[in-house]
């Protein structure tokens, strides 16, 4: 059993990581999370009563408090997922993205480095800092090719630029100060507990309620999709077994156009929750003005993590999507609270 400090552990992916670490693997976990609009303690409900689970409501920019938490919890592994994560929000208000994703990552690295230096030699040798990032840092692909770990950084949105900056900081803290860091860049995630502003939950929930299903542009932008519980398993492998100083790309080898994704969700919702008053959900699809600077295609070469760490996804896009629609049908109380209070669905924004 190890002690993991997980920043952003109340968010979509962070909570899947924590449920896996505590629930499946029996590790001790302390979640450090500010609980922004995207953080939700209900995401941790399945493991919340475990004696191995701890929670601290903190901003990663609050250096003194984060330092005190490191001293108290004495983590052996830090997994850094706290971030502002929604591209549309970064276009409307980039400042929070620079503050949390760039300045916050700097503060966390600084605290982690001081803490690591204070450890005895065997503690220093075993310590790992894992930075969790996105494939969006590589920019946009055209019809051919895949992002590899050596693809040049070409971020296009304020979100991806802030994540690219944080990736570079992590690299520098490893290279210059010797902090034992690893990093990973992953494609689009989907699955249970996904905040309803993102494409797949938005389409499921609007489809259930008979509301319009917005798609940017012509719906021909292509993303690679990975089921969030597969990502969580991959992240723990990287954190525990990844080589220090390396980065690992993580993907699902499941490229789909946004229109294909939306149509697949429509068909599943029709099958699992038919509603004669609403009719076929595909008829609710509406093409809306494209997102400014919308990247055309992301796709991942996930060969390195497969070769070095033996990771392959368990879910295909079809099986993962079916599980996801089932989860939203079975967990109405979870999403209805978010839909009626925090997020009212006025914005049409979607896609991480
Ligand atoms: P999310 O928005 O669901 O969760 C982010 C969490 O971070 C929330 O719990 C929020 O409260 C917390 N947080 C935000 N600012 C904070 C701060 N200043 N201090 C402490 N906590 C703070 O995001 P997610 O989709 O779970 O993404 C997690 C990480 O994975 C992010 O770093 C993101 O860039 C990366 N990522 C996401 C995807 C995706 O498809 N969602 C894909 C690849 C990588």
From TrEMBL:
Keyword match Electron transport: no
Entry's Gene Ontology BP terms: nucleotide-sugar metabolic process
Residues in NAD(P)-binding domain copies: 5-324
UniProt key word Lyase: yes
Cofactor(s) listed: NAD(+)
Organism: Methylovirgula ligni
Protein name per UniProt: dTDP-glucose 4,6-dehydratase
Keyword line: Lyase, NAD
GO molecular function term, any single one: dTDP-glucose 4,6-dehydratase activity
Enzyme Commission number(s): 4.2.1.46
Family in the record: Belongs to the NAD(P)-dependent epimerase/dehydratase family. dTDP-glucose dehydratase subfamily.
Catalytic activity field: dTDP-alpha-D-glucose = dTDP-4-dehydro-6-deoxy-alpha-D-glucose + H2O
A Pfam family the protein falls into: GDP_Man_Dehyd
């Amino acid at each position: 059993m190890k002690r993991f400090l997980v920043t952003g552990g109340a968010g979509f992916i962070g909570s899947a990581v924590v449920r896996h670490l505590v629930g499946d693997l029996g590790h001790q976990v302390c979640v450090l999370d500010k609980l922004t609009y995207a953080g939700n303690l209900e995401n941790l409900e399945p493991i919340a009563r475990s004696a191995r689970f701890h929670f601290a409501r903190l901003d990663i920019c609050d250096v003194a408090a984060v330092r005190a938490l490191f001293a108290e919890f004495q983590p052996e592994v830090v997994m850094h997922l706290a971030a502002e994560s929604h591209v549309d929000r970064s276009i409307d208000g980039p400042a929070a993205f620079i503050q949390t994703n760039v300045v916050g990552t700097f503060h966390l690295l600084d605290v982690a480095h001081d803490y690591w230096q204070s450890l005895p030699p065997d503690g220093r040798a075993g310590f790992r800092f894992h930075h969790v990032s996105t494939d969006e840092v590589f920019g946009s692909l055209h019809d051919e090719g895949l992002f590899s770990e050596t693809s040049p950084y070409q971020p296009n949105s304020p979100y991806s630029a802030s994540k690219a900056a944080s990736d570079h900081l992590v690299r520098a803290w490893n290279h210059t100060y010797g902090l034992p860091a690893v990093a990973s860049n992953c494609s689009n995630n989907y699955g249970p507990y996904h905040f309803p502003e993102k494409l797949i939950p938005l389409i499921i929930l609007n489809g259930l309620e008979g509301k319009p299903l917005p798609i940017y542009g012509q719906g021909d932008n292509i993303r690679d999709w990975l089921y969030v519980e597969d990502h969580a398993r991959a992240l723990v492998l990287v954190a525990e077994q990844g080589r220090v100083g390396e980065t690992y790309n993580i993907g699902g080898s499941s490229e789909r156009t946004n229109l294909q994704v939306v149509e697949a969700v429509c068909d599943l919702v029709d099958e699992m929750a038919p509603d004669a008053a609403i009719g076929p959900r595909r008829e609710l699809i509406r093409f809306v003005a494209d997102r400014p600077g919308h990247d055309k295609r992301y796709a991942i070469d996930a060969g390195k993590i497969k070769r070095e760490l033996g990771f392959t996804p368990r879910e295909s896009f079809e099986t993962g999507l079916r599980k996801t629609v089932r989860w939203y049908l079975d967990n109405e109380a979870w999403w209805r609270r978010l839909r009626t209070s925090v997020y009212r669905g006025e914005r049409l924004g979607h896609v991480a």
